[in-house]
Amino acid sequence: MTERSLKSISPDGITGMIFAMEGMKDSIVLLNGPMGCRFYHSTTSQFLSIRPLLYLPAKEGGERVPVDYNYLNDWFFRQERVPCTYLDGYDYVYSTKEKVGAALDFIRENIAFDVITIVNSPGAALIGDNLLELAREKLGGCRAVMLESPGYSTSFEEGYSEAALALLKQVGEPLWTERGIFGRKEREHRPPRVNLLGMSVWQRYFAGDLKELKRLFALCGIEVLCTLCADCPVEDLAGMPEADLNVVVYPEMGLAAARYMEEVCGTPCYVCPSLPVGFSATERIFADVCGLLGCSDAALREESEKARALAWYRIQAVHRGYGKPQGVKFFVDGGPSQVRSYTAFLRDYLGMEPACAEDAELVFGDANVIAELMLKNRTFCGIEISLPGMGYVDLVPKTHLGIEGALLLTEQVLNGLMSRL
What we know:
The chain is α/β, with parallel strands linked by helices. It contains 15 helices and eleven strands. The strands form three sheets. Strands 5-4-6-7 form a four-stranded parallel β-sheet, sandwiched between helices. It has a four-stranded parallel β-sheet with strand order 9-8-10-11, with helices on both faces. Helix 7 (156-179) packs parallel to helix 10 (251-265), helix 8 (206-219) packs across helix 15 (402-418) and helix 12 runs parallel beside helix 15. 45% of the residues are buried.
């Protein structure tokens, strides 16, 4: 049970960069690289449920018209997301500026967007083209972010962290300067405010995670201003300095951005000691945040106690009949926060035992990890905690975070074990 145990099929730094920026609303990520670098990201991104349709630029006084993907051949190749410059040998020798410029022209004239990001593939980054200057020349006042030298050998989390920090520096800081809101406002008679950092559309139950966290903050009388790189419009970046606290949910993805805002804007940050996976972790995080902001977590604790009672009743019924989940072996594959947080909940709350993948009855990971173990004829139950998924279509938002998440995760564990009887 280790962080990203199966390295050959784990998402890398360039994936982290792309999906950090894909988490922004009305955004376009232009991948400057060969076609092979694009297909996986385009295919995965277009199936993310929060992604808006692409729209044609609005005419004065008219409504926005959705783009017809069947005719979106140039640069997009009839896919909704992540257009690509499809570099070849000629471009690597004579520069990529011509293709990047043509792609920017097409996007400007045919797609409505609030922010565009150019991601240089590792090979393209070696050429040395000044693409940020080119983007400013082609796009005028449009907001642009340039991400250089993404590494295939770095982790998803490192790529995401670098992109989130670049977004704040290249788009956020100019907005704060322009609008004169560098400093935090006095609270006066308003509720306390927070930003959430480190959330990602790559998380398996992203929409449900975000909904549950916002619900629990509201239960404590706290307003969520911005969820950076997570279903976030550019306008939300402008108001980030007005938050009283930055809550770093995933430190490996959000801490760099939080430290930057602490230095530039003076906004303090709270780094979650773990993900809010399980009742105890959720209660601790919200008790800490409420203590820092001077508000009460009494309503959250009351709801958590009721949920604990329901979970205990179901767990006891299964244990009396089948002796599970206590002692059941499990394996978690994921990022640092996922491994630590899921392990703590499964071990400390449900009494399960961490084990290697080959010995586990329950495996928590993405579809690649679960499928690889299935091909080895292992007998186990797989539970998805990150993308890509096995194809299950969620119509109702689900979560593994917070109080609702603790109930769902317990439900999946119990049913997973029952399915193996």
